[in-house]
Amino acid sequence: MALADPENQLLLERDLQYAFWNNHCVVDAAIGTFIEYGTKDRRKNRESYAEMWRRWIYDDYYRSYLMPLEKYGLKIHHEDVEEAWKRITEKGYVHKTAQFFATGWFANFWRIDPLTEEDFEWFEFKYPGWYNEYGKWWEHYARLSKPNGHKPIAFEDVGYVYPHRCWTCMVPCMIREDTIMDTVDGQVRTYCSKTCHWTDKEVFRGSYQGRETPAMGRLVGLREWETCYHGWELPDVMKDQGYVRPDGKTLIPQPHVIFDDKYMWTLDHLKGIEFQSPNVLLNKMTPEERDAWLVGYKEGFTIK
Ligand SMILES: [Zn+2]
After folding, report:
1. What's this model's pTM, rounded to 2 decimal places?
2. pLDDT tens figures, 285-302
3. CA 97 to ligand 1 centroid distance, Å
4. How far does residue 278's CA lie from ligand 1's centre (Å)?
5. Distance 162 CA to ligand 1 centre (A)
6. Is the separation of the CB atoms in 156 and 255 below 8 Å?
7. DSSP at 303
8. Positive or negative CA dihedral for 139, 141, 145, 150?
9. Cα(74)–Cα(57) distance, rounded to whole angstroms?
10. Is 49 exposed, middle or buried (0-12, 13-18, 19+ CB in 10 A)?
11. Which residues, in sequence order, are CB contacts of 62 under 8 Å at separation 6+?
């Protein structure tokens, strides 16, 4: 058994730590959004994702699997579990992800329709204060969901600022105040959290705290899809992604679920929009510009 040899402890602790955090970042973002925003079941007694998380992750995974490993001398990072819980319940992690997914509807292979009054009521009931932070943005989303002479919401100024991506988990840095910027492997990168920063900078490396770890992978290459399309015209991005229907013009993604041709977005609606990668732009800045940018980024934004 791996735990029987104390030599393994350091690397096991490392693996458990980054695995927990990466799973939290990616799975809670995606599954949380599907469960909370991809449903019409707004019964008040339906468990919210936060309530499910408490059972599935906190009680089950953490308390009945991770914690007992301490008996074998492994250090468990309780603070990461607490922080994940805080991100979901206090820092709006799932709501911010849904907002980001909906902002980038043109880049999704699924559709998020505008929220209704019933949805609003449910969110406010489950997450008091929700409307103040997200309500107005969803009203903009509804208003801009049918093509009517405007651009997709991501390219209209509603006060939302398109986020930078976390180099490690690849979910954007949406909890703005926690964003970390660092130059790693000669590139300026952003991270959503200190654990993601540590994962790239110290874990996926050839050695870890003096131990050789030649089999570890590396977080390298074109990790952000935005970078692949920096400077492209948006209609060309859509064609290159295969996001156009067989008629050659209607987009596969749509910011609503109305099945009526007159409300469908087409390539024509995207003409003249240039797509840019936040990370490429960040790397072009001077160090002083970048420091000033980070201060502003951490302050967040106000929806109009
Ligand atoms: Zn991250």
Report:
1. 0.96
2. 999 999 999 999 999 999
3. 12
4. 16
5. 16
6. no
7. -
8. positive
9. 19
10. buried
11. 81
